[in-house]
Amino acid sequence: MIEALFLLVAGLLGGAVNSLAGGGSFIVFPALLFVGVPPVIANASNTYAALPGYASGAVGYWHAMAKYKDRLVLYGIMAAVFGYIGAELLLVVTDEQFSLVVPWLMLFAVLLFAFGNQISAFVAAKGGGSRGMKAAGSALLLAFLALVCIYGGFFNAGLGILLLAFLATTGMSDIHAMNGLKLYVSAIVALVAVARFALNGSIDWFHGSIALAGVVVGGYLAAKNAHLIPAKWIRLGVIVYGVFMTGYFFWGAYL
Q1: Sequence-separated (6 or more) residues with CB below 8 Å from residue 100
Q2: What CA–CA distance (Å, rounded) separates 207 from 130?
Q3: What is the pTM of this model?
Q4: Phi, psi of 36 (to 5 degrees)
Q5: Mean of the pLDDT values across residues 123-127?
């Protein structure tokens, strides 16, 4: 009973954080580890728990991201293909290998998000030249999205931060529209990954389903009320929380 309540609360908090800025899996994933789920299965179960929250959060943000609907098909295809590749990669690593690589993936994600504006300015400057430069810039952005989706299929925690960094490089600045697209892409990555993990028997359905219930409610409520929170505070919160969790994973893996 205590374990169930603990996972439910973790799911509520994780779903809310996912909708507001990304990184909510860093609440749910450690909670699954705490109740005794092995690392690789905990990660797969965390992806399963996050999936409905991503979907319900995207619905809550629909009006904010509707003006970018021309991106949905391309982003959806990229998410499905490369999210599946990431899921395949997870299934070939051991728990020990997985635990050692997590902190480095986190550090990469936080740095990308923190310096997303500078990256965006650089891409915009390069894209303003010749047609060839614009084409090269577009190709690099798609390569960036492909890598992010592989990351998401492999390690769901931190996917939202990476997607926000990617969207910043495309020139977007509306945090609520960015959150909507982030959740849309995350939902597709998680869907194909969960399907692959399920076929492999790598999901703890009992513990994952308890966390899932909390994630759904927390994600939708936070998305519906996101306009009440200033965008600059959301961004600052992501950076501070990301730094803290990066340190936590380094401490757990190497100290």
Answers
A1: 253, 254
A2: 53
A3: 0.79
A4: 100, 10
A5: 53
